[in-house]
């Protein structure tokens, strides 16, 4: 058995900054309303065809590869987490393989939305622990802005999401006291429709029993979120899965050096921080600057925290996510 260790991190966000005031010009909203409910001040949106889910993932991946100290040819496998692929199929994993000019390594796409990066890390960890692969590229990337309803009707969702990408290199670690100690994954599909896009693309033709064709009020191709219900479930599941991971490794809340929660809503992160009695140096949030970037949010935040020196060798780092599905999970890491 081996452990897997994060040896390289990188992220990329588009240059185009969209503030709350910018959104107030195209829908009935304002900065105070958005910050009070979400904590978000601004987010990034792609503004050209040059930035795609794949291309942003590739840019983040190149940074992570460079920082890992391995050559791109050393990558054995690719795992790409996203809910916003460039194509309905194939997924972006193979596009990354092509764009990086890699040999014919395997590529896997993960569709677990906000918990996608946690799920992808868990899969990579298992492949490395069993000895199947040595270096795995894991990417979380999203382009939300091209699929949101930027009208007053859609403001409850559209003000939340942003675009961006993050990446990590996981490599084999023989010291079993270091690296990823454990991962913990869960789902509860009975609430799938509480946070969902019901009828994207080709799916539209199969939901005529739910929504009549040519209905001018049809919103099925836009994201739907039952915000209060999602919030109530999120704070419970976040707490549970963090404690599950700590207990599995004989750790206490006080052992957490850095918690990187999925950046869904600043109020959720603050609730968990207060419940666990963690100080500001033990929790990293950047939703204020980027909004909710779904599968990209944890790798972007993890990279930023590491770049700022907030994560050091020997630290206990916890990643936790909850989102559409419902799916949720945690990762416990000894840095």
TrEMBL record:
Describe its function: Catalyzes the condensation reaction of fatty acid synthesis by the addition to an acyl acceptor of two carbons from malonyl-ACP. Catalyzes the first condensation reaction which initiates fatty acid synthesis and may therefore play a role in governing the total rate of fatty acid production. Possesses both acetoacetyl-ACP synthase and acetyl transacylase activities. Its substrate specificity determines the biosynthesis of branched-chain and/or straight-chain of fatty acids.
Q: What is this protein called?
A: Beta-ketoacyl-[acyl-carrier-protein] synthase III
Q: State the source organism's domain of life.
A: Bacteria
Domain notes per entry: The last Arg residue of the ACP-binding site is essential for the weak association between ACP/AcpP and FabH.
Which residues does the Swiss-Prot or TrEMBL record annotate as the active site?
114, 262, 292
Q: What EC number(s) does this enzyme carry?
A: 2.3.1.180
Annotated coiled-coil positions are: none
């Amino acid at each position: 058995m081996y452990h897997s260790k994060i040896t390289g991190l990188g992220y990329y966000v588009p240059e185009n900054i969209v503030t709350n005031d910018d959104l107030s010009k195209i829908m009935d909203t304002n900065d105070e309303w958005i910050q009070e409910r979400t904590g978000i001040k601004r987010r990034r949106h792609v503004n050209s065809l040059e930035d795609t889910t794949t291309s942003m993932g590739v840019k983040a991946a190149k940074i992570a590869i460079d920082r890992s100290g391995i050559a791109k040819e050393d990558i054995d496998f690719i795992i790409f987490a996203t809910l916003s692929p460039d194509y309905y199929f194939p997924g972006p994993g193979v596009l990354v393989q092509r764009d990086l000019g890699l040999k014919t390594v395997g590529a896997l796409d993960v569709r677990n939305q906000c918990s996608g990066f946690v799920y992808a890390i868990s899969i990579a960890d298992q492949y490395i622990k069993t000895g199947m692969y040595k270096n795995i590229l894991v990417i979380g990337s999203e382009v939300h802005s091209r699929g949101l309803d930027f009208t007053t009707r859609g403001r409850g969702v559209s003000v939340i999401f942003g675009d961006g990408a993050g990446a990590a290199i996981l490599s084999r670690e023989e010291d079993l006291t270091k690296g990823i100690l454990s991962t913990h994954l869960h789902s509860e599909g009975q609430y799938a429709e509480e946070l969902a896009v019901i009828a994207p693309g080709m799916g539209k033709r199969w939901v005529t029993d739910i929504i009549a064709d040519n209905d001018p009020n049809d919103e099925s191709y836009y994201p739907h979120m039952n915000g209060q219900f999602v919030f109530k479930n999120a704070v419970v599941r976040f707490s549970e899965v963090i404690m599950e991971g700590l207990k599995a490794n004989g750790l206490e809340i006080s052992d957490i050096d850095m918690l990187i929660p999925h950046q869904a809503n600043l109020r959720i992160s603050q609730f968990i921080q207060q419940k666990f009695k963690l100080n500001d140096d033990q929790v990293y949030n950047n939703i204020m600057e980027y909004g909710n970037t779904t599968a990209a949010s944890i790798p972007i935040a993890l990279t930023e925290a590491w770049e700022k020196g907030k994560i050091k060798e020997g630290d206990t780092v916890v990643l936790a996510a909850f989102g559409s599905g419902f799916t949720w999970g945690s990762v416990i890491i000894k840095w």
